[in-house]
Amino acid sequence: MSAYKASAIIIFLIVIGKVSGFLKDLLLTYYHGVSTVTDAYFLASSISSVLYMAVFSSIPIVVIPLCAEGRKQFSDSHIEKLLRMLMMYIMLSFGFAVAIWLFAPQLVSIFAGELDAVTRVYAVDYVTIMSVTFVFSAVVSFFNSLQLSEKNILPFYFTPIVNNIIFCSGLMLFSNEDNFYIVLILGIASWVLLLLGNYSSVSDKFDFKNLGGTKVVDYWHVFQLALPAMLTLYIDQINGVMAIFFSAEIGDGAVTIMSYGNKLNGVFLSVFVVILTTIIYPKIADKVSNGDVDGLTNTMSKYLKLFIFAGLPVIIAMSHFSKELVSIIFERGSFDRDAVNGVSAVFSIVILGLVLNLIRDLINRVFFAWKKTSIVMYLSVAAVTMNFVLSFIWYENYALIGLAYAGVVSLLLNVLLLLYLVDKFFDIKLIGVVIKMFLTFCIAGTGAVVCLMLSKQYGIHDFLQYFMAALTYIWVLFIISYVANKRIEM
Length: 490
Known about the structure:
The chain has 490 residues and is mainly α. 87% of the residues lie in helices and 0% in strands. The protein folds into two domains: 3-429, no CATH class; 430-490, no CATH class. Helix 6 (154-173) packs antiparallel against helix 7 (180-202), helix 9 (254-289) runs parallel beside helix 13 and helix 15 packs antiparallel against helix 16 (462-489). The relative contact order is 0.10. The model has no long low-confidence stretch (mean pLDDT 79).
């Protein structure tokens, strides 16, 4: 398959994944709006994320560098270590599921704040059902990571598509409030389907009959390998749901509004994160395993340019047109104008952290690949602490707006420290690169703004105004890049 054809397929699958995710949110808002069901659903999702998402997300972080170390991904010793890793994740996921079954009411009470009794009952049911997916999703993620290490990235992209399609089908078939739990049960079925589909692609490389045939001490060794990544991601999860925790203290509807604002931001963020996980991280792991610092620096610089030059215009546009965007996507059915105003106000702020999130995740992957995860963990603790302090100070006076700003400010602190430490520990000088890119963006952005102001002055159609501004932005970037390359050649 040619590179162009492969790229076209990947872009198509990403688009389908995002469209199906949008459809999921549209149907959820259409049938349930801002309601008891959505509050309970987002609360249950937040609890599941806090308790388990770090385990799930750590799988590719641990498995991909493990496969890159010797470049003999499926030697006998390597297979044995990977099997122990898989079994460890299965046991860990099952343990978390059992814990949620036993303590779901207590967990909901911790997070529920001022939410009413009906919402709490629904949340207990929803989070219990969600916990059943833990083991299945862990195995699917493990199989996807093995496939990524062999440059087989298509199964990774099919995972969200299958989940979203089944969830959407459930919403349409069981739209009544009392039947929402059936939609979540269908989510379990989607993970089982994905597990069976992905198993066929890796079953020829593993003898799963020996999956449990190792000593406890062997599992402890692989657990120690995965633990730092899980702890770091746990801290990030806590940081991510900090706003949900304080939103529950504000009152009914606040959890849903904050969740939709973060979810819309996550749509744009996830497009870049998918590329980071499937394409960039395996390259970083290969560079680290070969000790190629120069190659790693070039790789990091290239993707920083992508994130900054493509991400910052998205931030500005989405923040400026936040109300229009939220209205177009969500304002239908039970989702009214007040909900649009609330979500757009939150989204216009949290979107400011888009590029910061991307830079943070990119640099974190270097520390993960180099097995210096404790540094990332300490920085995450600092960010969580800052987020908590600012949220506690601001949420009473500024409500959801204060919570949104608290997340962005704490994220900025995290990124600044990461840029400093990646230079100190690995001699990867990115601070100067980021400053140059930001100044370049400012110059190109100024050109776009001037073009926009002139086109408005001469009464050009709105669509042509923004189209010409975008072309000006791209053209100025091209000129600056051309001049810089000429100076290097001289």
